[in-house]
Amino acid sequence: MAREKTARDCGTRAVNRRSFLGAAGAGIVGVFGVSVLAAGVADATDYRTITVPAGETRTFSVGSGQTFENALIDMTAEGASARIDASGDDWTVRNVAFAGNHPGGHYLFTPAVSTGGTARVENLYMGDGQTARSGKGAIRVNGRDHYGTLNVHNVHVAHFIDNGLHGTDHGYSYRGRRGGVVNVHDSYFDSNNVSNVRVGSPDGRTCHVENCVVKGGDTRPCGVGCSAPGTTTSRGVWAWWGPVEVTDSDVGGSPAGVEQDGRAGNPEIISENTRWGYDADTSRVPAGVPMTAEAAVGGR
């Protein structure tokens, strides 16, 4: 059986890569509790907890062809946090939970598909939020390196300060870069400051937001790095480039949860079977979205 490559831990303790791969191939959990098995054979209920000590940040790097999965990252200690950096193509992050409040200072997840290929994120829990008036946020796609297609399924992002899913930047195509696509499916966003879902491809390819719910009403104030510290602006879907197709979704907010930013290349939102603002049913949760950390790592 061919073994799938592992994600690399860049924390304060080192992993012996050879023994880590060997343990994964035998179905044994590695030293940091990340079960990485051959594609299609990982048991999502067989996860381990990675505990981050107080005041520390643990970083995991994921490259082309690698998978980071079945990990509950415990950030409940004071000042503890973590981050996943993913680049290249054909990588996967699935059945992963960040448990505990994020103290800020960096994004928890910085993905990019740095070729014309694809990558996938599924069953990701970021529902415990971030310290009010801190900096950075949940997910920020690395616009300088993102050329391909990132497909996101079943994520839960709630109460972050500097965007929930920051899926596009406003200026990188000016440097001759093509820009990439971010598609978001069957996901749930709750009261993320600045925006909940911010997507759009500078090269004119369509980004898709499908069967997603955006709930508002409990936004934590913006802090370090915000243009207006202390504000609480929770845009539902923010199109920086266009077109962005929003289908079968409920996008709440007051005022209506959509904003198109004309500074960033004539964005366009195409709405199909989607309810906006006060008409949205934000009480529903798309099937498959993990509402707890344990549900994410259990693949439920």
From TrEMBL:
Domain of life: Archaea
Transmembrane segments: 20-42
Annotated spans, Disordered: 250-285
InterPro entries, per database record: Pectin_lyase_fold/virulence (IPR011050), TAT_signal (IPR006311)
Keywords of this entry: Membrane, Transmembrane, Transmembrane helix
Signal peptide: none
Record's protein name: Right-handed parallel beta-helix repeat-containing protein
Organism expressing this protein natively: Halorussus gelatinilyticus
